[in-house]
Amino acid sequence: MINRKLSFSNVMLFFGLVFLYLPMFILVIYSFNASKLVTVWAGFSTKWYVELFRDDQLIDSVLTSLNIGVTAATAAVILGTMSAYLLNRFGHFRGRTLFSSMITAPLVMPDVIIGLAMLLMFVSMASTLGWPEDRGMLTIWIAHVTFCTAYTTVVISSRLREMDVSIEEAAMDLGASPVKTFFVVTLPTISPSLISAWLLSFTLSLDDLVIASFVSGPGSTTLPMVVFSSVRLGVSPKVNALATLIILCVSLAAFIAWWFARRSDRAQRDAYRMLGRDQ
Amino acid sequence: MNIKKLLNPDWYELRARMGRRAVIGIPFIWLLVFFLIPFAIVLKISFAYTEIAIPPYSSLFDYADEALTIVLNLGNYLWLADDPLYISAYMGSVEIAFIGTVWCLLVGYPMAYAMAKAPKNWQSALLMAVLLPSWTSFLIRIYAWMGILRNNGLLNNLLMWLGVIDEPLVILNTNVAVYIGIVYAYLPFMVLPLYSNLVKMDKSLIEAAQDLGAKPFECFYKITLPLSMSGIIAGSMLVFIPAVGEVVIPQLLGGPETLMIGKILWQEFFNNRDWPVASALAIVMLLVLLIPIMIFNHSRQKDLEGRS
Predict the structure, then answer these.
(1) Residue A9 forms part of a structural domain
(2) Which of A214, A226, B11, B271 has the most CB atoms less than 10 A away?
(3) Average pLDDT score over chain A
(4) Measured between CB atoms, does A203 come within 8 Å of chain B?
């Protein structure tokens, strides 16, 4: 196929990609089904999309999710940049092992454990410190910032590691303070990775059901929570329409993130070539 | 030299040290407060009694008449050990996650291998194609399978139309559906570390082996496979650990026979509102996952800090 060779692994790659994409294509096609019965095709219709926009509860949850997603991703990128910087540039400091364990643990920790732990902490804090008074947007935001920071740190860290340290050293030799060096030299160099880290956090936050279910309060319902409660009742064309819109938006965000990451790779390769170091 | 440093060395040093402390301190304290301490609290509450109150558990520490009494209730753990439901749920989770991981590896390894061997200008696009679904909503992707696997769903309709089967296969709400869901949801996490490992592999080793007369299968078995072991371990851990604690897949695709600890914990917490038992379940789950998490962290930290 790709190698113009029909080897076993190429066939597997082809079927693997079909396996990954076919269910979503089916979902998208059936969202335009006029029939209320999901299995019977009754012609093309966009009425389920119209119905989505009439659902106030749904629109509210979308706004809540977007609000948390944007602010949590921004905070996670700031914290992730700091964490990546201190893991890559600070050498040894006290508690380094503990810190890097805390950074990597959320990557694999099951969501139920993180969600339960966060909730119990918020409850304990509320009873001893009186803060947070009630659970809602703020507690979901804190939880999302915490687990997204793990991902942003990994993304930014890999970029920071590839960056040539001698440029930073040159700036500092020429009299720039560490802070100025960071903002004038380091930050512009790693900025593509900041964009992809932000988009990754944003999609992770928009997608999270389990942690948000634990730490949310009665007043705040996020989009995945609404989707989950309607999905449990079974398959419906309205959920298909919603799913299609979600797939569309997320694919777009992912594509932009990939594009930025790829462009930075290429820019870096060109820079190396100019320096005569082919890599 | 820095002019400020020459004029006022003390002030400059102080500011640099404060800056360094802030960069270390802010993320450190954030993770300490919102990630590490919560686990201590889960441990604490797993020793509490269930009470009908807000919050629904008893306090461990009691200070009265100048005496501090600490009451540790081991009952929650004994309750878990006593009830066969919980034990079989732990076994079931590990079993389902393990089989799911093996399937992911069997499907993902050839995919990663083909990607690593593909022409250079294809690789980035192929990687994107594999990763894109993992960015799309997890819930939606699992939901998509509900429509396909139902008794009157697409798969059964197709098979009946083809004449392969006469009666619809019952797949949804069985463990088969759970395996499909796990492979589908976690496949990208298996392919990514395998690909990044395989793409770095030195091709001259294979050429040397071929020159010396090794058959293709022998080459793979004796060279490629052992060299990609770190990728296999990283990918397997990325699938196995979250799959053990999976909540959404057993609830949407699984049936009554699907006993998984994440589902039980969820029900214990949201339906029974038994927070201490849910905490004890979480602690035992952590203990089960401790060794896999340590293996993963070890490989990840090497990666994060650029040592290899």
Answers:
(1) no
(2) A214
(3) 84
(4) yes
CA A63 from chain centre, in angstroms, equals: 17
- What is the CATH number for A82? 1.10.3720.10
For B200-238, the pLDDT digits (tens) are: 888 888 888 888 888 888 888 888 888 888 889 989 998
Residue at A4: amino acid letter: R
The answer to the question of residue A270 being in a domain is no
CA distance A275 to chain B (A): 22
pLDDT band of residue A269 (cuts 50, 70, 90) is: low
Q: Which amino acid, A130? A: G
What residues contact B114, with CB distance under 8 A and at least 6 apart? A2, A7, A9, A10, A12, A13
Name the amino acid, one letter, at A149: T
* CATH architecture designation of domain B76-304: Orthogonal Bundle (1.10)
Q: Is A66 on the interface with B (CB under 8 A)?
A: no
Residue A94, C-beta contacts closer than 8 angstroms, at least 6 positions apart: none
**A27 located within any domain:** no
Interchain CB contact of B187 with A (< 8 Å): yes
B1 vs A: CB within 8 A: yes
Three-class DSSP category at B52: coil
The rounded radius of gyration (Å) of the Cα atoms in chain A is: 23
Give the residue on A whose Cα is nearest the Cα of B16: A178
Q: Determine the average pLDDT of the residues in A170-182.
A: 87
CA distance B197 to chain A (A): 15
Instruction: Evaluate whether residue A242 is within a structural domain.
Output: no
Q: Is B288 on the interface with A (CB under 8 A)?
A: no
Chain B residue at shortest CA distance from A106: B35
CA distance B82 to chain A (A): 22
